Amino acid sequence: MNVQSAANRSFSRRGFLGLTAAAASVPLLAACGGGSASQGGGGAGGTLKFWDMPWATPAYNDAAKKIAEGFSGANSKATYQIIQWNNFYQTFSSAIASKTGPAVSTGGGFQAFQFEQQGQIAYADKVIEKLKSNGQFDDFLPGVLEPFKTDKGYVAVPWQLDMRPLWYRKSLFEKAGVEVPKDWASLLEAGKKLKTIGAFGFATGSGAGNNIGNHSMILMMINNGGGVFTKDGQLDVMNDRNVEAIEYMLELVSNGIIDPAAVSYTTDNLNAQWKDGKAAFGPYVLGVPERVGDTSGDIVVASPIAGPHGDKTALVFPNNIMMYTNTPSQDASEEFLVYYLGQLKNLWQQKLMNALPVFKSITELPEFTSDANNVKVVNEYVPIAKTFASQGTALSADLAALDGGQALNQFTQTVLTGKTDAKSALQAFETGLKSVLKK
Amino acid sequence: MSSTTAPSGLARARKGLAPGGSGGGARNRKSKLSAQTSRTFFWLLLPSVILLVLIHGYPLFQAGVQATHDGNLIQTGDFVGIENFQQVLASPAFWKAAQFTLLFTIVGVFGSWAVGLGLALLLRTKIPAGGTFKVLLLLPWVVPIVVSSTAWNWLVATPDSLIPSIFRNLGLGTPLFLADPTLAAVTVMIFKVWVSFPFMMMMTSAALASVDSTVYEAANMDGASRFQQFTQITLPLIARSTYISWILMTIFCVNDFPTIYLLTGGGPVDATTSLVVLAYRTVFQDFATGPGVAIAFLMTITLVIVSVILYRQIRKSSVE
Predict the structure, then answer these.
(1) How large is the ipTM?
(2) What is the pTM for the complete model shown?
(3) Is A436's CB within 8 Å of B286's CB?
C-alpha cells in the first residue's frame, strides 16, 4: 500500500461530504450572523449611521457627507450613506426590519410618521430642548415645527421646505399681451390668450414618476379653502370647495389651457415644455430656471393667486430628519441631529439646495437672497403655505398613502384626461382613499 | 456434461449472468452499488437543495405569511386568513389589470414570436451584410430598458415628438400615444414586441439551424409548395423550441415591470396597469402589503398553470 492510496482511503467519501457541508454552511452562518452596529439605545456611544437622500446634485451629497463625517460628539462618530429614491421605502423598511437601518436619516416627507406607527422612531423632544437652549429653536420659520408635534412627542425635526410655487415665463405673457394671473378668473382668461400663441397657461404632468399633477390638484383644492382633510384630520373629499376646484381644473382642460398630453408627462417632458417655451404658467418645484437650463431670467416666480372666494394658499412639504430607536446611543443620535441642524447653512452658502431652509438666519444669507425668486417664495409663499394635511396642521402616516398612492394618481389622471365630471372624480378618489386609509 | 443448453445460455448471457449461477449475487452487488451511489448523490445534492429551499422556500413562506396577515413590511400584523385574497378578487382594479396583463402577454408572446420568426427566416436567406443585420437586430434586447424606454418616451410623449409630428404632417391628426388610454395600451404592447423580438429571433434561428436541409430537398421532389414546406415541415420541426420560447416569453411578459412602469407608470388612468405593476403599487404606494402580496401569489399560481400546460405541449411535440 503506497502513501497515495492511504491518503485516498483516509480522505473518504464521508469526509469529503463533511467538508462540502462545512463549506456550504459558511455563507449560511455568515448570513445568520446578525446585523451591524446599531443595537442598544443607551448612552455608550459608537458609530452612528446617517442615511441621506439625493436631494440635489451629487455636490450636495458630497457636502452633506463632509458635514456628517465631521461629527464627533457624545463619544461617537457618524457614517454617511446615500439612499436612492427608487424603492426608498422598501430600502428603509428592509433595513429597519433586519436591524441594519440608520440611527438618523432624512427621507420621504411622511416617512417618519409611518415608522413611528410601527414603533421605530425615537421622539425628538430632547433635541427640541437642546435647540431651545442653543437659540436655534427661535430661528425656525413660523409654523414649520408644529406639523411634527404629536401627543407622544416630536416625530422628526424639519430641515428644508419643498414648496410648490407658481412659475411663469415672462416673454410668453408679453407675446400674448396678457397680465400675469392674480386669481382663477384671470388665469382662465390668460390661458385662453396664451393658447393662441401655442403656449399652455397651466403646465403640469402626471406621467411615470411625476407627482406635480397630483400636487396641482391638492394645491387648487386648498387654494380654494378646501382640501382632503378637515382640521381634526378627518377625510373630507366631497366638500363644495373641492368640487368647485375640480370643476375649474376641468374647465382648464376643456379649454386646452392644460396640455392634453400632460396626463402622460414625466418630469423630463415637463422640463422640456418649460425649456421650449410651451409652458407659460404653472406650479413646480424651487429652482426651475436651473432645472430646465434657462437662467436668462425669463422664468420667474409669480405671486400666489387667489381663489374665487379670496382664499390664497400655497402647498409645502416640510422635509425632515428623523431618529430611530435602533441606535448605538440615543444621546449620540440627539447630539448628531443638533450638530447637523447647526451646520445646514453651509449647504445654502454653497448654493447646493433646491429647497427653502427652515431657519430664518439662512433665508437672510446673501447667497440665498441673491436669488429674487427665493426671496419672493419666502416672503409670499411661506406665510400662507399649507401641507397635504389641508385644513389641519399635524402630519400623519395617512398622508404618505395620499401623496404617492394610487387613489390620488388615478384621480389626477382622470381629471387631466377631462373625461369625467368633478363629483364623479372626487367620489372615486374618496372611495380609493378610504380603502387605503381604513386601517 | 453441462446441463445448460445453448439457447438458455445465450439468454443468460444477454442478462449478464454467469453459467450455473442464479444471478442473485450480481444483482445484490449491483443494487448495493446503486444504493451507495444514491446515497452519495443524496449527500452531494443536499447542500444545494438546502440552499435552494432557503433561497426560494423562505421568501415564499414569508410571502405566504404576509398574504394572510394584515401587516406591513416591518411588522407581520394580525392573521386575516384569505381576507386579502377576497379583497383583491373583489376589486375591479385587479380584474382590469388581469385583463390588460392577458392582452399584453398574448400580444407580447405572439407578436414578438411572429416578428422573430419572420426575421429568422429572412436571415437564413443570403442577404448582403446578414451578420451585421443580425447584430443590429439584437440591439433592442441588448440596450438597457431604461435607455430604450426613455428613447420611446421622447419619440411619442408630446404632440411635438417625432412620431406624432409625422402623423400630423401626413394629415392624420396629432395622436397622443401615451395620453390616450387606448393608444397608450397599444404603444406599450408595441414597445414590448420591439424589446422582445430579438430573443425570439435567436431562439428560432437556433431551431431552424438544426433542421436538416435534405428534408426540404425531399419535399421539393414531392412537389410541396413553399407555404406547405413552412407549415408542414418547418413549424412542426421547430415546435419544441417554439413552445419553450412561448413559455419563457409568457413568464417574461407576465412578470414584466420595467417596460410598462418606465414608459407609462401604469397610466393613464390605469390603462396600462398590469398585475405586477398593480402589486408593486399596492405594496409600495398604498402600503397595503397583504393585498399586494396576494396579487403576486395569484400571478404565480396562474403562471405555474400556464407553464404546465405549455410544458405538456412540449412533451407531446417531442413524442410526435
Answers:
(1) 0.79
(2) 0.83
(3) yes
